[in-house]
Amino acid sequence: MSANKNYKDSVFTALFNQPDPLRDLYCAIKDVTLPSDVPVSINTLENVLFLDFYNDISFEIGGKLVVLIEHQSTINPNMALRLLIYITRVLEKKVKSRTLYSKKPVTIPWPEFYVLYNGPEPFPDDAVLRLSGLFEKPEELGLLKEVFPLLELEVRVININEGRNKAIANRCSKLAEYAAFMAKVRIFREELGNLEEGIKAAIKYCSVHDILKEFLEIHGEEAPNNALREAVLV
Question: Is residue 176 exposed (0-12), middle (13-18) or buried (19+ Cβ within 10 Å)?
Answer without folding.
Answer: buried
